[in-house]
Automatic annotation (TrEMBL):
It comes from Bacillus cereus. Residues 66-194 form the Nudix hydrolase domain. Signal peptide: none annotated. Belongs to the Nudix hydrolase family. InterPro entries: NUDIX_hydrolase-like_dom_sf (IPR015797), NUDIX_hydrolase_dom (IPR000086), UDP-X_N (IPR059176). Pfam families: NUDIX, Nudix_N. This is ADP-ribose pyrophosphatase.
Length: 205
């Protein structure tokens, strides 16, 4: 599913970022900066994105570059799965978002569910860790690990947020129009498989 050139661009960017972080020699720093600019030019050209936009995306990385972490909360109630409808693309996703500094993965899951739906959750368990590159139909400029954490509602009430325009539970046979960048149909079906068999082996790419 992966478009190879985008993998190569991200690897070049990662090498350049590490070189700029650890190099002391001014000539090496200049070469790594040129390598970084080359990766920006390639990404800009092939994605038809303004050079400055790509530069800002890559410039947001500091230090040694590692994959970003996206946390998704898997919340079942009466054999239906909790989804939020995102305002950004008007499609449905499991509650979640980027992992925040200073929070554990389960704390991120709880925070995202509360902020996006109004529900309080607990009783966490790891269900799956996906490498986004292996499951997305279209390439991404960033390398992302997606962590799916099962949890249960223990309080709160349904409440919309500034990011969501709807909240609902769906059965396996009524999966809504998904925000594919956040979760794929394949991943959602795997979550329903965990609902049916809580002892199912965890998925780790």
């Amino acid at each position: 599913m992966t478009v190879k050139w985008i993998d190569w661009v991200k690897q070049i960017q990662s090498i350049a970022q590490a070189g700029l972080t650890y190099s002391k020699d001014v000539y090496d720093i200049e070469r790594f900066q040129q390598l970084r600019d080359l990766s920006i030019s390639m990404m800009s050209h092939y994605t038809k994105t303004d050079w400055e936009v790509v530069e800002n995306l890559f410039a947001s990385e500091t230090g040694y570059q590692t994959p970003k972490v996206d946390i998704r909360a898997v919340v079942f109630q009466n054999e239906k799965l909790l989804f939020v409808k995102e305002k950004s693309d008007r499609k449905w996703a499991l509650p979640g978002g980027w992992a925040d500094i200073g929070y554990t993965p389960t704390e991120v899951a709880a925070k995202e569910v509360l902020e996006e739906t109004g529900y309080k959750v607990d009783h966490f368990r790891l269900l799956a860790i996906f490498d986004k590159e292996k499951h997305q139909p279209s390439p991404s400029a960033t390398h992302v690990y997606k962590v799916f954490i099962g949890c249960e509602i223990v309080g709160g009430e349904k409440k919309l947020s500034i990011e969501t325009e709807d909240i609902d539970f769906f059965s396996e046979h009524e999966i809504p129009d998904l925000s594919i960048a956040r979760n794929t149909e394949e991943q959602i079906k795997e979550m329903f498989a965990y609902m049916k068999d809580p002892q199912k082996e965890k998925i780790i790419d």
